[in-house]
Amino acid sequence: MNLTHITGTGQETLLMGIVAVVFLLAGLVKGVVGLGLPTLSMGLLAGVMPPAQAAVILILPSLLTNAWQMWDGAALAGLLRRLWPLQLGVILGTLWAPVSLVTLDAHLTSVGLGAALIVYALLGLFATPLTVPRRGEGVYSFATGLATGAITAATGVFVFPAVPYLQALSLKKNELVQALGLSFTVSTIALFLRLVFDGSFGVGQMPGGWSLLLPLPAALLGMAAGQALRGHVGEKGFKRLFFSGLLLIGLYMLARGLMH
User: Fold this and answer.
1) What Å distances lie between residue 82 and 149, 158, 190, CA to CA?
2) In angstroms, rounded to a whole number, what is the distance separating the alpha carbons of residues 52 and 201?
C-alpha cells in the first residue's frame, strides 16, 4: 500500500486507522496462542511506513502486552527459577551478537526463520512432540537463549528457537503462555537496548505523537479478546491452535521474505 498520494490530515487519519487495525489483529492472535504480535505488526506496517518507524511504534505495546502475559498466571515464580538461564542467554545474545538489524539482510533471514517455523509446526501437528531432558536443562536453556538473542538482534523476531524450546518442556497450556510472556518481555527489553546501542532508535523517527500511544489500547483490546477465546479451548485444542499459529506465522515470514 502506498500512502504518498494522500496528503495532510487524510494521510494521518488513514495511517492511524491502519495502525489501530494492525495492532488489534496482532493482539487478538497473541491473546489466543501467546505470540505473533511483533511478527504480524512489523510485517503489516512495513507496507505503509519505514521499518524504523514501525520498530519504534512496536516497542511499547510489545513490552506491555508481554508483561501482562507474563504476570497473568500463578506459575511465574517457578518459571523464573527454571528458565533464568534462558533469559540470561537471550540478553547476552541480543547485546553481543556480531550482526544486527542495521547490518543483516532481514528479508533473507525472514525466509530462513519462516522455513524453520514451518518445519517445526508441521512436526508438532503430525509427529511426536520434541522433549528436553531435565538433566542438563540449564545448559540447553542458556544455549537456546544465546541463539534466540542473536536472531532477535538480527531480525527483531523473538520466536526462534525459544518458542520450540519452551514447547518441548511439556508445560501446561497456561504455563506455556506465561513462559512465552516472560521470554518475550526479556527479549523486548534486550532488543530496545541493542537498538539504542546501535543508534537506530530515536524519538525523531516517530511519524507523530499519536503513534506512541495509539497501538497500545488496540493491542490490549485484541489481547483481552484473544485470552477470552483461549479460555474456551482445551489442552489438545490449544496445542493444535498453537502449532497452526506457528505454521501461519512461518508461511507469512517465508512469503514476505521471498516477495522482497
Assistant:
1) 18, 19, 20
2) 8
